[in-house]
Amino acid sequence: MKSRNGWIALVLFALVFSPLAARMQPAAMAQEEASADQDLMTEAELASMLVNVLGMATMVPPNAQPADVYAILLQNGISPKDGWNPTNLVTIGNLARIMVQCLGDTDKIENPESDKSWVDYLKSIGVEFGTIEDAIAQIDTKDDVVALKAVEVSTDPLRKAALIRPVDEQQLGADLQFFNRTLSREDVLEPVPPPAPPKPRPVTPNAPRR
Amino acid sequence: MKQFKIMGLIAITALFSHAGAMAAEAGSGGNWLSVGNRLRFEYDDNVYEKSSGKEDSFKLIEELELGVTLNFEPTFLTLRYRPSFSWWENREPDDTDLHHDFDVVLNHRASPRLSMGLKNTFRYAESPEEIDRGTVVRENGDYIYNVTDGNLDYQILPRTYMLVGGRYTVLRYDESTVAQTEDYDIWAAGLTLRQNITDLSRVMADYRRESISYDGDDRGSDSDYIGLGLEHVLGASFVGVLRGGYQMKDFNDATIEDAEEPYFDVTLTYIYSPRTRFSAGGGFSMFESDIYPFANQDRTIFFASVAHELTAKISLYLAGSYQLSEYDTDQRIANDLDLPSDFSGDEDIMQGSARVAYQVNARNSLEINYQYIDLQSDLREDFDRNRISIGWRLDI
Predict the structure, then answer these.
(1) In B, residues 227-266, which contact A (CB 8 Å cutoff)?
(2) B36: three-class secondary structure by DSSP
(3) Distance CA A155, CA B262 (A)
(4) Which residue of B has its CA nearest to A157?
(5) What is the dihedral of CA B27, B28, B30, B35, to 10 degrees?
(6) Do B135 and B146 touch, CB atoms closer than 8 A?
(7) Contacts of A8 (CB under 8 A, 6+ apart)
(8) Backbone angles phi, psi at B351, to 5 degrees
(9) Which of B47, B64, B72, B78 to mutate against chain A (most A CBs within 10 Å)?
(10) What are B174's strand-pairing partners?
(11) CA–CA separation, A88 vs A93, rounded Å?
(12) Which residues touch A98 (CB under 8 Å, ≥6 apart)?
């Protein structure tokens, strides 16, 4: 038990005082503090809200980490211009891009590299918003969600897959029924009999020889 | 009993269809409700999962899905109810199954630094006793399964986050002879510290405590996990998570020695192009046992899946997995079964799946599905099974 507690203390100590922690960038820190203290939103917060609004909350693992949220959004073609960067603040261009992606109209944008094209497209279909919350309120749930994680392989007891899953649970990608048949004590007591060996061919001792 | 099931399903269908129609008529005000229906006609070549003397059957599978998404920003509530009904053309003694899935997710952002979540997963599944040519080949396996998860995520420093989580899992079988050895309760709790080391990478330190207890013969255990993890996001094309650590497991049965083993899991998502997306992963750990009288298995799993849009209306989905379960004779609980002293071994489980979906219009799609499973076991009967189905999916 002492060694176990020692391990735990060591891991926590290593994390908090890790040299990696010292690599924190002052500019990014200031940006994060700004977002926390002011009415600004980071891409991490936006991603978390989108998963809820789009109806994907039941499809990410319990106790989801940021990577789970980004993964399911990327699988469904929803991403800022340069991908999800949790420390970036949400810009009008990226918000317009994401709204169009949520609508499923990405292929209607003439110049995807230009933020203005995404904003102009929203204007052309009559979608207007003043704040990020206002924009999010106009996003509908998504019917055709793709969730590619066919098997939950996590070993984390806070998020690992159920031992039991119902027959034919849809994975919203390709169905893959996790094998879950238990072998109970009763099944062990009464095992299925092995297949009977093939019977020998009947022999007729007194059959006349040719 | 069958009539009650069918009448119940018809009533639920009518209720959901009515609710869906109302939501559709309500226009944007009805966006909180989604109703889906999936009907499949399937051929199954091995109903009883036998190695020889296979029995095949046609099957009708009806699945409804009702989703409710409520945005009370900063609080979000998601509900999902999915009953599914199956009718088998050739299965004795019960040719119908009715399953219920009900999920609730409640997320709340109390402040930019603090968020919390609650998730409940409920399953009721029927797996009736199976009789093949007058012999009971499997006991009744109807069960209720429920998992409740709660978590709190707090930004303690500008680049440092703390996640505290808890989970309670309960499994209850209807059949008393199965329940006496298979019913269990699992409690788990844990702490994660997450540190942003760059804008795109995070390192994590985990501590978990898990307690498993069975109602009858105690195959339970208490485990501690300590480990580290790494998350990396690369632009709009890649997300990877790697976790690993050490698990220490104390078994409730005094005849089994404590076990200490490493664990790991990795999950990758790769967006090759907007039309082609990959996901893959793998993991190894000590795990709950599927087989009595073992108290533990060493489980290794790998999987891969891909989604590819062949055209704007036709999508292809492929998935495959491999699982190796290792059962050690030294991790059997004390029991009165007359088993060989070396009763132990491995199970290899391979699965494959393919689906092609054709989107007829915004609400209707057609699909062809194929599923394959192959079990090779030292402890029970081997089998392989193929299922192929055609289906129609409706989203309201």
Answers:
(1) 227-228, 231, 233-237, 239-241, 243, 246-248, 263-266
(2) strand
(3) 11
(4) B188
(5) 80
(6) no
(7) B207, B226
(8) -135, 145
(9) B78
(10) none
(11) 13
(12) A46, A50, A78, A79, A80
User: Could you tell me the pLDDT band of residue B337, with boundaries at 50, 70 and 90?
Assistant: confident
What is the value of pTM for the model shown? 0.83
Residue A14: the pLDDT is 52
CA dist B303 and B241 (Å) reads 15
Q: How far is the C-alpha of B88 from the C-alpha of B96, rounded, in Å? A: 6
Provide CB contacts within 8 A for B267, sequence distance 6+.
A67, A71, A149, A153, A154, B240, B241, B279, B280, B281
Helix (H) or strand (E) holding B97: strand B96-111
Distance from CA of B117 to the nearest CA of A (A): 8
Sequence-separated (6 or more) residues with CB below 8 Å from residue B27: none
- pLDDT tens-digit map of B85-101: 999 998 877 888 888 98
Can you tell me whether residue A50 is helix, strand or coil?
helix
How far, in Å, CA of B225 to CA of B248, rounded?
Answer: 7
CA distance readout (Å), B227 to A2, A23, A155, B119, B296: 17, 22, 11, 24, 21
Structure tokens at B305: 């899946």
Residue of B130, B219, B214 whose CA lies nearest to B169: B214
Q: Tell me what ipTM this predicted complex has.
A: 0.85
Calpha distance B97→B392 (Å, rounded): 20
Joined together, the tokens standing for residue B175 give 């059949």
Helices and strands (H, E) in chain B, number of each type: 2, 20
C-alpha angle B124-B128-B130 in degrees, rounded to nearest 5: 155
A112, burial (CB in 10 Å: exposed 0-12, middle 13-18, buried 19+): middle
Asked which of A54-58, B242-246, B257-261 is least confident by mean pLDDT, the reply is A54-58
| Inter-residue long-range contacts of A193-198, CB under 8 Å, 24+ positions, other chains counted | A193/B135, A195/B51, A195/B52, A195/B53
Give the Cα separation of B293 and B336 in Å (integer): 10
Report whether B287 contacts B347 (CB < 8 A). Answer: no
Question: Residue B236: pLDDT above 80?
Answer: yes
Name the residue facing B71 among A15, A53, A169 (closest C-beta).
A53
Residue A33 has which token pair? 């503090």
**To the nearest 5 percent, what fractions of chain B are helix, strand and coil?**
10, 65, 25
Provide the number of CB pairs (under 8 Å) joining chain A to chain B: 373
What residue has token string 């980071």?
A: A42
* Look-up of token digits 């038990």: A1
Q: How far apart are CA B263 and CA B248, in angstroms?
A: 10
C-alpha B324/C-alpha B120 separation (Å) is 29
Neighbour-count burial of B55, counting CB atoms closer than 10 A to its CB (0-12 exposed, 13-18 middle, 19+ buried): middle
